């Protein structure tokens, strides 16, 4: 395997290449796009959470100014369901029958000349329901329970035998609430039909999935559909699935034979584009007096929608996190009358890690061992399920370097033993072993006659830096100055890319870009293979390198020529090459491909009189393999850490237990941290390139968030002696 030569730009903290577009307002997000003759849509949402629609009166809406059409289940055509995929399974097609399965379900779409006219008319649609009592509580005995729906439960060893020989067994129930993805950009779809061809701008993390889904749902060929998402406006997982409102916008455009734009309102974002479902988790851990983990049993229940396949295997993290011989993980879904959940910022991992890493701390305390020590002692040097060495794992370095930099040794073990004036001070930590996820990806690279390069793939950049790191990577592999390289994405007409999700894009895409660029150099060598005029005649790829756009022999740097010279002599405008990547196979590799690892260290302050909790310091030590851009990577970990603080202390989607209405569906009511809640966040990267891919990078999209909830909970325990097993951690739990 050819590995990446350390170039001039990879690793460096290059400013984002798309920053000028963003700060000048030139970057076009989905709702910046318009088509000539475009009209606007607004949704009608159900005002009951369960039951049937018994009648719809659209007469007032149809008669309202500017209205072109109102589509309901009474008038909608039959639509197919889109394809099922791991991250982006399509929910069932909208408006197909009279059933109401959750509050806010789209029961109609109104199309009018202006957005205001559409919204006004949507309010005039009268829907009559025969409401039934909704199922809203995961503990409701009437609710259907789905066992192990995706076959992801695990079991190794004998948990009961392990527990029996444990000196200490701790048990606890941990709960996490519903959280809602809240990207700043309101998710938008703009659709225009031209005959059977369709162009769609969409707030998606996965243009190919939107294209494939719309082709299946509307029974038109994929080749006629183009989905564009050059900028997304944030996503956090909300852009992985092809939501009903996307389908409805495309349907509306076909009905009125005009391009249609739909921008979700903020309240609609809470019911239309997924959320992190709540969980109830039972965890039981057995350990010896010396601190060896001998049994872990982790069971999770998450809520799911009535007619949906989204799945959160919250307990799964316990299967790979520690070198414990006896482990059982089991997950179930409970079907409720709630909006479809979806992946949200470290789906399943962040909930499961809260229970696991809190419980590990409980064990440490029970046997009187330092929380860092017990984690070091039980560090899994082999992949616990595959029994293979990890392709790379610098978790021990995360622990040790993180502890050193944080000053963990200053921690005195006794709860409540550290103070600063009236504040109780607590130190807490948590570990993260993020799962490996990679799926195939493709890219195409071209060098033009002027010596510039153009590289592209149908990926998305959800704000994390994909444009930038792929530009750097292509520049280094092609040996071209970074200012002469353009990397483009967000267009389903480009080569296939998987979603920007599951912390899986950067690794897959960087390997595809690397391969495409290497093949492109080979293309140049092929052209001059028999060219008597070329100093590169007969050279093989391994005989050459490229510096400043000039290919030259490694053993004789004076023998070479530039891309531009070579193209000109052969009368070519440009040369291109494709590259693809696939996940490495563990058996072939003889190693378990590793995801990212991390250790989180947190200092909190608690005012015992007022119950105030403040995060004072956070240090994240991250093993992300090769870091392609130190600046964007650091920003990504910082952003994830803010998300983790948010999950730990703020976010909770509140559903009215009687009606199923979401009671805090605005930015005013749905709490998130502000600057004053977020201290300076320290990040260190440890470890080195991962040998399982040519570029050596691992995805760090989600490892930044996971672990904060447990680390903060553990720090609260240290400060106050209270063990909080329910998120978010709020004042009332600390009084
Ligand atoms: Mo991420 S929640 O897989 O976009």
Automatic annotation (TrEMBL):
The keyword Translocase does not apply. SMART domains: Ald_Xan_dh_C. Residues 24-133 form the Aldehyde oxidase/xanthine dehydrogenase a/b hammerhead domain. Keywords: Molybdenum, Oxidoreductase. InterPro entries: Ald_Oxase/Xan_DH_a/b (IPR000674), Ald_Oxase/Xan_DH_a/b_sf (IPR036856), Ald_Oxase/xanthine_DH-like (IPR016208), AldOxase/xan_DH_MoCoBD1 (IPR008274), AldOxase/xan_DH_MoCoBD2 (IPR046867), AldOxase/xan_DH_Mopterin-bd_sf (IPR037165). Gene3D superfamilies: Aldehyde oxidase/xanthine dehydrogenase, a/b hammerhead (3.90.1170.50), Aldehyde oxidase/xanthine dehydrogenase, molybdopterin binding domain (3.30.365.10). It comes from the Bacteria. GO terms for molecular function: iron ion binding; oxidoreductase activity. The keyword Metal-binding does not apply. PANTHER family: ALDEHYDE OXIDASE 1-RELATED (PTHR11908:SF132), XANTHINE DEHYDROGENASE (PTHR11908). This is Acylaldehyde oxidase. It comes from Streptomyces brasiliensis.
């Amino acid at each position: 395997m050819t590995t990446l030569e350390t170039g001039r730009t990879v690793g460096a903290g290059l400013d984002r290449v798309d920053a000028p577009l963003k700060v000048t307002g030139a970057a076009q997000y989905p709702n910046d796009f318009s088509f000539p003759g475009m009209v606007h849509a607004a949704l009608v949402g159900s005002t009951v959470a369960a039951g049937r629609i018994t009648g719809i009166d659209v007469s007032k809406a149809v008669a309202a100014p500017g209205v072109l059409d109102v589509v309901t289940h009474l008038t909608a055509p039959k639509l197919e369901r889109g394809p099922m995929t791991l991250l982006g399974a399509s929910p069932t097609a909208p408006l197909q029958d009279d059933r109401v399965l959750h509050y806010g379900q789209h029961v109609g779409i109104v199309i009018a000349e202006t957005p205001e006219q559409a919204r006004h008319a949507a309010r005039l649609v009268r829907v009559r329901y025969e409401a039934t009592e909704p199922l809203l509580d995961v503990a409701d005995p009437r609710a259907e329970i789905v066992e192990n729906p995706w076959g992801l439960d695990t079991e190794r060893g004998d948990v009961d035998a392990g527990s029996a020989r444990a000196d200490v067994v701790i048990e606890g129930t941990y709960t996490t609430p519903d959280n809602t993805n809240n990207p700043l950009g309101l998710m938008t779809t703009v659709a225009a039909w031209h005959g059977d061809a369709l162009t769609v701008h969409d707030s998606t993390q996965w243009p190919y999935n939107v294209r494939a889904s719309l082709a299946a749902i509307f029974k038109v060929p994929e080749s006629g559909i183009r989905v564009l998402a050059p900028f997304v406006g944030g996503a956090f997982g909300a852009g992985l699935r092809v939501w009903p409102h996307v389908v409805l916008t495309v349907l509306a455009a076909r009905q009125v034979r005009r391009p249609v734009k739909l921008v979700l309102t903020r309240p609609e974002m809470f019911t239309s584009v997924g959320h992190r479902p709540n969980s109830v988790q039972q965890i039981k851990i057995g350990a010896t007096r010396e601190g060896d983990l001998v049994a872990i049993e982790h069971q999770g229940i998450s809520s799911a929608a009535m007619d949906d396949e989204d799945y959160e295997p919250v307990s799964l993290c316990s299967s790979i996190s520690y070198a414990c011989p006896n482990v059982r993980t089991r997950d179930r879904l409970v079907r409720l009358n709630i909006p479809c959940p979806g992946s949200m910022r470290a789906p399943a991992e962040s909930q499961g890690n809260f229970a696991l890493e809190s419980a590990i701390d409980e064990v440490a305390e029970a046997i009187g061992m330092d929380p860092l020590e017990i984690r070091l002692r039980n560090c899994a040097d082999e992949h616990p399920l595959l029994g293979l060495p990890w392709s790379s794992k610098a978790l021990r370095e995360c622990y040790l370097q993180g502890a050193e930099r944080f000053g963990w040794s200053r921690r005195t073990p006794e709860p409540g033993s550290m103070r600063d004036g009236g504040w109780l001070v607590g130190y807490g930590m948590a570990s993260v072993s993020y799962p490996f996820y990679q799926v195939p990806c493709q890219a195409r690279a071209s060098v033009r006659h002027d010596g510039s390069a153009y590289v592209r793939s149908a990926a998305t950049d959800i704000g994390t830096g994909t444009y930038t790191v792929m530009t750097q990577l292509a520049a280094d592999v092609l040996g071209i100055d970074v200012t002469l390289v353009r990397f483009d994405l967000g267009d389903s007409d480009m080569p296939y890319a998987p979603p920007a999700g599951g912390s899986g894009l950067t690794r897959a895409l960087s390997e595809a870009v690397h391969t495409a660029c290497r093949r492109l150099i080979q293309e140049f060598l092929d052209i001059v293979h028999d060219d008597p005029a070329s100093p590169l005649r007969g050279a093989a790829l391994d005989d050459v390198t490229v510096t400043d756009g000039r290919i030259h022999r490694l053993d004789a740097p004076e023998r070479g020529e530039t891309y531009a010279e070579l193209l000109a002599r052969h009368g070519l405008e440009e040369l291109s090459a494709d590259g693809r990547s696939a996940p490495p196979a563990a058996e072939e590799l003889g190693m378990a491909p590793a995801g990212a690892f991390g250790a989180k260290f947190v200092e909190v302050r608690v005012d015992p009189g007022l119950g105030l909790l403040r995060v004072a310091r956070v240090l994240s030590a991250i093993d992300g393999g090769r870091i392609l851009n130190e600046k964007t990577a650091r920003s990504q970990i910082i952003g994830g850490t803010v998300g983790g603080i948010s999950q730990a202390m703020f976010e909770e989607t509140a559903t009215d237990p009687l009606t199923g209405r979401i009671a805090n569906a605005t930015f005013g009511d749905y709490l998130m941290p502000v600057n004053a809640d977020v201290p300076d966040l320290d990040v260190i990267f440890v470890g080195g390139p991962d040998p399982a891919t040519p570029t050596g990078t691992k995805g760090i999209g989600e490892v930044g968030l996971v672990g904060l909830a447990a680390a903060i909970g553990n720090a609260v325990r240290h400060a106050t002696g209270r063990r909080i097993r329910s998120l978010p951690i709020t004042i009332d739990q600390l009084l």
